[in-house]
Fold this protein.
Amino acid sequence: MRSQINTILRVNGIRNGDLIIQSDVDEIPSRATIALLRTCQGYPDTLHLSLRSFIYSFAFSLPHPTVAASVKTYNASDSWYYSHQRHSDTILEDAGWHCSFCFRYLSDFRAKMTGFSHFDRVTSPEEQLRDAEIQRKICEGDDIFDMFPEVYTFREMVAEFWRAYPETKSFVNMPTWLMQNANRFRFLLPGGCVREMEDPKGGLKFC
């Protein structure tokens, strides 16, 4: 699919100097980041974005930012193709947010848990896929797959072992558009962890 994006961009009239955001749908560059890149010059053609990491909502933060997302300055003479992977070591810090498993419906959680990329982590489906168990983990900040924390030193292991994701009640440093539409996206805000059961229209959605 990503290999076809280049063709789609060309058909829709992309021009040299245009900025292409290479990211997953749950990786959100901030408005200030895009304004900065539109205004400034002199940065590399491909600039990676360090995004603050959250899970389930903006109430639970993860310790390590993600850097897979990037912004590419288009040049028709490049041999570039759209790709969501590491292209350079140049990274813009605090450039936005990555909100993983930030779904409205419990059915969407089950769909992602049993999908191609994650199904092997579901080791006890009778328990892990229950609505009540998924809802509990969302509200308490527990790992939805019951996996050990991702750590790199013994100090981190001792600090993080069997510990829930740290919760915040703060509404600072969230996407402005989210705050402006708080009633619509209450489930993504601190204190709004309860999810609806099923999407009446079907399909995997973030909003």
Q: What stands out?
A: The beta strands are 19-22, 27-29, 46-55, 70-73, 91-100. The longest helix spans residues 2-11. Residues 52 and 97 are 5 Å apart (CA to CA).
